Amino acid sequence: MRVGIIGAGVAGLATAKTLQQAGHEVVVYDSAPDVGGVWSRTRRYPGLTTQSAKATYGLSDYPLPKDFPEWPTGAQVQSWLASYASEFALPLRLNTLVTRAAQIDGKWALTFDGGDGDIVDRLVVANGVFCRPNMPSFPGVEEFTAAGGEVLAGTEMHDASLAQGKNVLVVGYGKSACDVTVPLSRVAASTHVIARQLLWKVPRKIAGVLNFKMLLLTRLGEALFRYHRRRGVEKFLHGPGNPIRRNMLNSIGSVSRRQFKLDRLGLVPRGTMEGIVKGAIGLATEGFFEGVADGSIVVHRDTTITRLRPGFAELSDGTTLPADLIVCATGFTQDVPFLDVPDLFDERGNFLLYRQILPLGADGLYFNGYNSSFFSPLNAEMAAVWIAAHLAGAVALPGPDEMRTRVTKQLAFMDEATDRHHSRGGKIIPFSLKNLDEVLDDLDLNISKRVRASHWLNPVDPSAYRSVTPTLVARLHESLPSATRQTVER
Prior knowledge:
alpha/beta, 5-stranded parallel β-sheet, 24 strands, globular
């Protein structure tokens, strides 16, 4: 088949490579001039690094280069993805914005900005859950900008020199907010962080010794959070062993308090580390708390901007701050404005996707990258394997009503587990490995129990999944009629 893929980020590229190896003709469309998605030079901000360590972030057969640092920069990740696209000769149509995708006579008709278009047999939406910045609305913004002030999304802040000598306010307290704050604080006249809610930050090295990945990027680390289907050790951890489990999680919070001197800085988040999943699991930005300690960064906790006026911002606690530049690192909106598909969302706007992949309301349509996780490349790659199998009719699915029931139950569980912080159904943290197991068990392609057992105490290595794609491709190849197989081989 000819398969169109919208988005040239990690998910789009992994899908293109996998489907191409399965014998399909693919074409990848992206509005940016380069591959990378969130890592594109058009979107990355100063201070951007991966959330996961290098050894856990790669693809099963294409790891990040050994000479990259433990937490690679945005530019390094983009260069790795560009080399991946080149290595596998992926057909790209960059600078191509898809404005409409409509199903006609079983195929998908795509319209591009500028008027031309394309026809594909099947369509994969891989524009990602971080496709559009969620920008707050500030009263007085017109007067503020008319007087020379600027309000930018974090993804528009491409160069720290834009903050040179300015009074900067960064809105947000997630990883991207803290990441961008540090380089801006080095050149700005003043740097203030406006944090509606403080989040727990996990040290990159706990107590300066134990790498973060050794604790939370393992199956044991994931099992510390309650899943709605529990097996084996998980039943113990969330039953008789619950005090042990709770102490393990909250001890990280205690270490964070001491290591970052949060009590002295007045930055202890409300609640416990056990409740971390209800907001976000944030990796601490190097230099952030040091900047707060030396006064180059000032955090206004439990506060919002209530009004902007020329040269100033008024906060909800009554404070007025000088302001020339407002940088909003306030999350993203999951957006598919080009797609008009019935039953794609529930009544609250959540995506209805079986296994985070298959929409309930359309044939010949798939999503990838709507499984944002600690192991996003690996989750996207295995979702691509699932798509390849489904295209070949090699996935045994429950009936439509049962699929809808399972999707609804999954969303209800994630509502409870994350306090609805699941990107409209597109985020699977902290259950990344649960998703991998479910997707691969559908295909009878999961890696061995022995290797999975080793991942209980060791960080998950994506290369452990290296044989999955070749095994599926071989299986599909053997199922082809002889004449078709010979054509594919030629």
